[in-house]
Amino acid sequence: LILPYFLALLSDAYLESRNCEKGLAAIEEALDLAGDTGEKCWQSELFRLRGEHQLVQRGGNGSAGDSGVDLIEADFRTALSDAQQRHAKSLELRAACSLANFLHTQGRDAETVGLLRGQCGQWEDGSISADLRDAHNLLKSVD
Known about the structure:
Largest sheet: none
Distance between the termini: 42 Å
Number of helices: 7
Order of helices and strands: HHHHHHH
Shape: globular
Helix content: over 70%
Structural class: mainly alpha
């Protein structure tokens, strides 16, 4: 049941080393396992990582209407939606940061700002994390 989580960690390590082929294989294995077992706790992170791997494979480029770029955006939006449905605020923030970075690279800064303001506004309790810091920094650079 916990294997999808460990495969997500493995995929993240592959992302850091830019080994997207193995990272994507780990994600697909994790998604298959989650489907078989019903253990979908890390599903949003798996979709987010799949989007990140695909973005790296494309060199961070692409234009709207390009089917590969559309799939990347769909993975980030699925990750965000899944985290919101599960009330997993940390995973929601992480997915929102990935989506916001993607939107920014597409020149969609109004969407980026709206998304990040909404996310940062949820964390007014004084807590800070690397993901929240990233969100604030991206917001400052775009706004």
